[in-house]
Specification:
alpha+beta; Rossmann fold; Dna Ligase, domain 1; D-amino Acid Aminotransferase, Chain A, domain 1; four-stranded parallel sheet; 13 strands; globular
Length: 297
């Protein structure tokens, strides 16, 4: 049986274990963070610790913390479905949007700001936008730090808080995005496996949340993911996004209004939802991708 290493033990790990085991792939967890990891020298290492990294054939998604990931990668010595380059590519929201725009794919109007800059640069950066605008960190996930600004003063206020974070010399990413706000857009996460659409969910807030003025549709912020059948245009856009970025296994976030369909973000470490929310052959294709990556390397 093929052995697959996963560095997460959250929802995706629990959901994929049985379906992949039924297809001859044993899933094991390798802890990559909030622990110590031997980087060199091994004479005093116990057999139990050594065995933790032994016997795997392939990994599913490079660890989210790149520093720890480099050590885990060396210790495991396996190919990855979505390696380091794929994770870095997808994490850079501005880089993704620039690549998709260059390929002719529709995206929200977006400007990257690289701190430190003066207030005049921020004001100039929002020229051509209509308020409100979205302000978001360039490399955060799960909706962390995303805010709207309704006028120049509130925009500069949000940027003030970002400046406080970016003042720390150890902060690696000192960039943020200013993006057009599509308030009535429907929010979808499409899954692409090995270049082909594999299902989608619509992320929705309940009536009480909407009445309270909430607008972020992240599941980790309380939204519900409901399985949907995307139309051919949306399916094609998700597949083209994955092809443009060269990522085999990708979550593609789509925003759809009455007259527009755009790629908002991508995720090379996508959460796998319940199988009922995907195409019937989702796990067959997922397992085939894992097997082929193990063989290819």
């Amino acid at each position: 049986m093929l052995r697959l290493a996963m560095t997460t033990d959250a929802e995706t790990f629990e959901r994929v274990r049985e379906p992949l085991a039924a297809r001859g792939i044993e899933v094991g967890h390798v802890r990559a963070k909030e622990r110590s990891l031997r980087a060199s020298g091994g004479d005093d290492e116990s057999a139990d610790v050594a065995d933790e990294f032994d016997g795997f054939d392939v990994g599913l998604v490079y660890p989210t913390r790149l520093m720890e990931g480099a050590v885990v990668d060396e210790r495991l010595g396996v190919p990855w479905v979505n390696g380091r380059d794929a994770v870095i590519t997808s994490r850079n929201k501005a880089g993704v949007l620039a690549a998709l725009d260059a390929a002719g794919l529709p995206t929200p109007q977006t400007t990257l700001v690289s701190n430190p800059v003066s207030e005049s640069v921020v004001v100039d950066a929002v020229e051509g936008f209509s308020y409100p605008v979205v302000v978001k960190p360039n490399s955060a996930t799960r909706g962390v730090g995303v805010a709207t600004a309704s006028d120049p003063d509130s925009l500069l206020g949000v940027v003030d808080y970002l400046n406080l974070i970016h003042d720390y010399r150890a902060t690696g990413d000192k960039s943020f995005l200013i993006q057009e706000f599509l308030p009535d857009a429907r929010d979808y996460r499409a899954m692409v496996v090995d270049g082909a659409y594999a299902g989608a969910v619509r992320r929705e807030l309940d009536a009480d949340a909407l009445a309270a003025g909430r607008w972020k549709h992240n599941v980790h912020r309380g939204a519900t993911a409901r399985g949907v059948d995307l139309d051919p245009e949306a399916r094609d856009l998700a597949e083209r996004a994955a092809e443009t970025l060269g990522i085999d296994y990708l979550g593609v976030d789509l925003l759809k209004t009455d007259d527009r369909l755009v790629v908002n973000e991508t995720n090379a470490r996508p959460t796998v939802d319940a199988a009922t929310k995907y195409e019937d052959d989702f796990y067959d294709r997922f397992a085939a991708l894992i097997r082929r990556r193990a063989k290819r390397e």
